[in-house]
Write a structure and sequence with these properties.
single chain, alpha/beta, Glucose Oxidase, domain 1, TIM Barrel, 3 domains, 8-stranded mixed beta sheet, 8-stranded parallel β-barrel, 16 strands, 47% helix, 13% strand, binds phosphoenolpyruvate, binds magnesium ion
Length: 572
């Protein structure tokens, strides 16, 4: 018999961790609900069925409250319970039963549908994710009236493949130690995702797994940190991921202990570790994982979720992030749309990563740009000294000068309206295009800090599209060419006396972080999951060892040598 070939699928990483197991497909029961009419003498019976169903579903959600609450799961459950107990919804359902004489399931189904329609028209950021949750309540109530709730047959160690997962199904799943969740739909802010983070279940969303020939019981691997899903992996792939998983578990266990320790190497050299943040849901981890504020706040995701992102909305979002940073700084990166993150699907370009992206687009869309700057300056007035601006995708000096000129216009306009702002708000530049690293000595004179984005710096230095799977083996941030550009940027910054941070993925690899610290880069920003492990490695080594490592890396002639040096360093 011919064996299944491995199939690699990509999705959005939603909850970190590696899962290895057999697949279990969550079939969504089709909810065929017809507008069946009842007799007058059946009304009381159907009203009672509604009452009982509500109690049953309510109890399911109350059970959810017993789960750990590191990620605001309680807020989610309360939101679901609120919807469930909404008096207006109940009134609508009861009226449909007693006045229109519809059967209870149709009364529930149609009332919730009307509610969903209102929500979908409302154009608010969270509407989409919320719709999924309200559909879940609707279906659970309908099921409860029919008393045909099927038990989940999922077993420990299996990977759940679903279109989407309602929160109450997550409760059932939580009783079984599943290895991972792969969903076709769902936003990063959907409750299923937040709950999977809370439960520590690796999760990848937006995976088109239905187009594969996946069957129940097929072997699968999920990497919740990269968004990769491998169906019917080879023996070699399975062994490789098993090893990675063992390492991950051991590292995390060791790492979390370090979160509260001072940020110092074994010999006392101080460093700063900040978080890369994109969603509000990530904020509770700043504290638990030991981040000193936010080194990179990606703002473009917000822009994609709404059509008109006004100043007030932005002020609220930025303020919420800053409040959670507990007095530490928050570096707000200006919208970095374009590349693979298109604002408008009509704006397709032949080479999007070399095209209308980041600051290039913002300087053409002045209205949008000025709104964002106004929001940031206004927030800086409320949190003086805590806010910084970071300009993405800069390739020439003129772009920086133009941004600064527009900032002056915004400041004047705010002064005229007596709106407070931080006069000393720092403006930094992403070093992610090689021209900026090469010209770093000149550029450093015009900015307050550098933040090195190694993801793009790698793609532009090695001419490798970071999203193209066919050449993914060529995408290597550890290539000596990238290290050399980092060093040039650091030296130029030192000469001008401005600080340098690294906020690309490179910083989240412990050995690479040690090497950066060895080069004198004492500020690193990374995804929160990586913080504890990186910190544990930095705290347990001497700065001198890191310096020696960086010297070796900077004189390596190819990426393989760098890999070896880093591996050997860690093993010692
Ligand atoms: C980078 O390019 O390294 C970076 C941090 O930015 P992004 O990944 O958002 O492009
Ligand atoms: Mg970038």
């Amino acid at each position: 018999m011919k064996k299944n070939q491995p199939t690699i699928l990509s999705g959005k990483p939603a909850a970190a961790g590696i899962g290895i197991g057999s697949s279990w497909i969550l079939e969504k029961e089709s909810q065929s609900v017809k507008p069946v009419k009842i007799q007058k003498d059946e009304v009381q019976e159907h009203l009672k069925k509604f009452k009982v169903a509500k109690e049953v579903v309510s109890r399911e959600y109350e059970k959810l409250k017993l789960l750990p609450d590191d990620y605001n799961a309680l807020e989610i459950i309360d939101a679901q319970l609120q919807t469930l107990n909404d008096p207006e919804v109940a009134k609508g359902i009861k009226a449909k039963i007693s006045e229109n004489n519809y059967a209870v399931d149709y009364a529930i189904f149609s009332t919730f549908n009307e509610y969903i329609q209102v929500l979908e028209k409302s154009d608010v950021t969270w509407a989409n994710d919320r719709t999924i949750d309200i559909v879940a309540i609707r279906d659970e109530l309908v099921q409860a009236t029919r008393k045909n709730k099927t038990e989940l047959t999922v077993k420990e160690g299996q990977i759940v493949f679903a279109s989407e997962i309602p929160p109450t199904v997550m409760v059932e799943l939580s009783h079984t130690q599943i290895a991972g969740i792969v969903m076709e739909k769902g936003g990063l802010t959907s409750h299923a995702v937040i709950l999977s983070q809370s439960l520590g279940i690796p999760c990848v969303i937006n995976v088109n797994w239905k187009s594969s020939k996946l069957k129940n019981g097929n072997n699968a691997i999920i990497d919740g940190s990269t968004g990769q899903v491998i169906l019917t992996p080879s023996w070699k792939q399975t062994q490789e991921y098993k090893k990675r998983k063992e390492e991950e578990v051991a590292r995390l266990r060791r790492g979390l202990k370090w979160a509260k320790e001072p940020n110092k190497t074994a010999c006392g050299t101080e460093f700063t570790l900040r978080a890369n943040v994109e969603f509000l849901e990530e904020l509770p981890r700043l504290k638990t994982h030991g981040a000193q504020g936010v080194g990179l706040l990606r703002t473009e995701t917000l822009l994609f979720e709404v059509h008109e992102f006004d100043v007030e909305d932005q002020v609220n979002f930025y303020s919420e992030v800053i409040q959670k940073a507990q007095g530490e700084s928050v570096t707000i990166r200006l919208f970095d749309a374009g590349g693979d993150k298109l604002l408008d699907q009509n704006e397709q370009e032949a080479n999007p990563f070399l095209g209308w992206r980041g600051i290039r687009m913002l300087l053409d869309k002045k209205n949008l740009f000025k709104k964002q700057l106004e929001a940031i300056y206004r927030v800086s007035g409320k949190f003086k000294g805590q806010v910084k601006i970071l300009i993405p995708m800069v390739s020439v000096l003129e772009e920086i000068l133009e941004v600064k000129a527009i900032c002056e216009i915004i400041k004047k306009s705010l002064s005229k309206r007596d709106i407070a702002f931080d006069e000393n708000l720092q403006i930094g530049v992403m070093v992610e295009v090689p021209s900026i690293a090469i010209m770093a000595d000149q550029i450093a004179r015009h900015v307050d800090f550098f933040s090195i984005g190694t993801n793009d710096l790698t793609q532009y230095t090695l001419a490798v599209d970071r999203g193209n799977e066919k050449i993914s083996s060529l995408f290597n941030s550890l290539h000596p060419a990238v290290w050399k550009l980092i060093k040039m940027s650091k030296d130029a910054a030192d000469q001008e006396g401005i600080p340098v941070a690294v906020c690309g993925e490179m910083a989240s690899k412990p050995e690479a972080a040690a090497c950066l610290l060895g080069m004198g880069i004492t500020e690193l920003s990374m995804n929160t999951s990586s913080l504890p492990v990186v910190k544990s490695v930095l705290c347990t080594h001497n700065h001198e060892e890191m310096k020696i490592l960086s010297e070796g890396v900077l004189s390596a002639e190819c990426a393989e040598t760098v890999h070896k040096l880093l591996e050997e360093w860690r093993a010692v």
